[in-house]
Amino acid sequence: MMIPTIPTPEEILDKGFSRGKKQADLMRSQKIPKHLKGKRIEERRVVTSCQVIKDKLKSIIDAVPEIESLHPFYQDYIDITVGVDDMKQALGALNWAYGIITQLEKEYGSKIRKNPSEKATAIQKQAYGRISSVINKIRKDLDFLDFAKQNLRNMPTIDFDATTIVIAGFPNVGKSTLLTQLSSADPQVANYPFTTKGIQIGHTEIHWRSIQIIDTPGLLDRPVLEMNDIEMNAIVALEHLADAILFIFDASETCGFHLDNQYNLSKQIEKVFSEIPMYYLFNKMDLVEDSAYLDEYIDDKEKSIFISAIEGEGVEEINKIIRSIKKIDRTVEEEDDEYY
Ligand SMILES: Nc1nc2c(ncn2[C@@H]2O[C@H](COP(=O)(O)OP(=O)(O)OP(=O)(O)O)[C@@H](O)[C@H]2O)c(=O)[nH]1
Ligand SMILES: [Mg+2]
Asked: Residues 6 or more apart from 46 whose CB is under 8 A from it?
């Protein structure tokens, strides 16, 4: 998301007022009847300042895309990352300031014209006071947009036409390791939970079809309502993007989480996203000597595979699954979403 550089109120006012001064100074050498000259100069100063400030506000307003027009995934992503309501409020405040400055421009331009030249400077000062107070009122909104710019800088670029596979599971089970095996992506891998904090995307092509593989932050087996913002990134990717889910178990439990909990999470996801085909990948099998204890966690043998992401064991079979995945048409479903 391209949010332009956001100026501070001081920067906006400086720019406006210095351009106003420049334009006013240019008029001093012009031949204007003495009784009109002071008025003309100050009118030019106020109008120029207002216009420069308005241009600045408008360039920000226009550069930020309308949130409602974005794909539902991006809307949710922005909401989780910075808050859609706060974003709308900040943009609304900039619009408000734009409107008030337009009024002040007219009001003070005409006031200067109607009064004698001796009063022009005093009226101009009054105008500058009001302009400053309007721009200072949107300080927190400018601050917020700057915060949004920083935080949305890494917003993932999604290919909405590609078939999309989402890797999900508990923290530390090997999701990012698997992504490196399935695509050219190079996500961070580490031996602690919640290494992955956002969405990582890898791309690959199978039989000339673009495939997008999304690595998500680890999830715990708790209700969606209790999930934190990092976990919510995984949920929105599942909700809006997944044509299939690769659910990773750490069969060795060296991730620090019991298989019972991992199994619970798999069941929850299965229930919430029942229309999305799901595959169960039991990872870190290189650490497992006897796999008999895994039987109780396997409900669908056809859809369960033993793998070792670190050794590339099982990648062939996963690619075979990926080849068979069909794109889910979400257009209908997402229109429905609006009603609740
Ligand atoms: N022995 C073994 N270790 C693995 C395997 N796959 C991943 N690991 C290790 O498990 C740890 C976690 O791997 P990641 O790929 O970062 O796991 P993740 O699921 O992405 O973790 P989060 O992003 O924190 O949720 C790392 O130390 C990996 O090297 C595997 O097949 N076998
Ligand atoms: Mg990871």
From this structure: 20, 105, 108, 109, 112, 124, 127, 128
